[in-house]
Design a protein that fits this description.
The chain has 252 residues and is an alpha/beta fold. It has helices spanning 32-42, 54-57, 63-72, 86-95, 104-108, 111-120, 155-165, 186-195, 209-217, 228-231, 237-246, and strands at 5-13, 16-21, 24-30, 47-51, 77-80, 99-102, 125-134, 139-144, 149-154, 169-174, 200-203, 223-226. It has one domain (5-246): TIM Barrel, CATH 3.20.20. The relative contact order is 0.15.
């Protein structure tokens, strides 16, 4: 089994780290540079930085902040928000990002996935998918612009298309589970993992160490991303890794 990754997520709004529930009621949780440094020191495998209002506000990601974070950490660093063309990605790479994450722009222009993979390699391209379960459709509906708009795309066909276009990883967030701390959407995760062959990052729902284990074992995720449980010191990265090892999950 490949080692499973633990990834703290920094959701950024107006230059500060924030966290909400189901994408709303955002609260400030601290300075992104200090949090990034702390997580790197604690042994996090990677970091994800998402400028969560960039697409909705029609602007680019905070490049200076990306540069500042990159100076203070020595682990892989994924940046997302407001990336709509290859040049946007190049700027972030030059600023210190190791990978970029695209979401709304990929839905609007799926060829962007192809273009980024051709320019930088698939390993550089993470396609983030925010989705909400629709019982009437017996499927999950993909949303964009920070969960504000529903699209005509469906989760499982969209992740397959993203892989075929050159995505190197899928970051799946269940809007229904986000910030609720009742566990990840393991059934959907497992189905994604069985649909595609690229790594899947689970996001939305972490509230206990057992939730990470379930995402890896039941959901077959390759990595698990969380925010509030780390930001509020409810779970520490070293304790989580020790627990997972004890439970038979291979971690770095």
């Amino acid at each position: 089994m490949l080692a499973k990754r633990i990834i703290p997520c920094l959701d950024i709004k107006d230059g500060e780290t924030v966290k909400g529930v189901k994408f709303v009621d955002l609260k400030n949780v601290g300075d992104p540079v200090e949090l990034a440094r702390a997580y790197a020191e604690q042994g996090a495998d990677e970091l994800v930085f998402l400028d969560i209002t960039a697409s909705f506000e029609g602007r680019k990601t905070f490049v200076k902040l990306v540069e500042n974070i990159a100076k203070h950490i020595n682990i892989p660093f994924t940046v997302g928000g407001g990336i709509s063309e290859v040049d946007d990605a190049k700027v972030l790479l030059d600023a210190g990002a190791d990978k970029i994450s695209i979401n709304s722009a990929a839905v609007a222009n799926p060829n962007l996935i192809n273009d980024l993979a051709a320019a930088f390699g698939s390993q550089f391209v993470v396609v983030a998918v925010d989705a909400k379960e629709n019982m009437n459709l017996n499927d999950w509906v993909v949303t964009v612009k920070g969960g504000r708009e529903f699209t005509d795309k469906r989760l499982f066909s969209w992740v397959k298309e993203a892989e075929e276009r050159g995505a190197g990883e899928i970051l799946f967030t269940s809007m229904d589970h986000d910030g609720v701390k009742q566990g990840f959407a393991n059934d959907a995760l497992r189905r994604i993992s069985e649909t595609i062959s690229i790594p899947v990052i689970a996001s939305g729902g972490a509230g206990a160490m057992s939730h990470f284990k379930d995402a890896f074992i039941l959901g077959k995720a390759d990595a698990a991303l969380a925010a509030s449980v780390f930001h509020y010191n409810e779970i520490s990265v070293p304790d989580l890794k020790a627990y997972l090892k004890q439970e038979g999950v291979t971690v770095r």
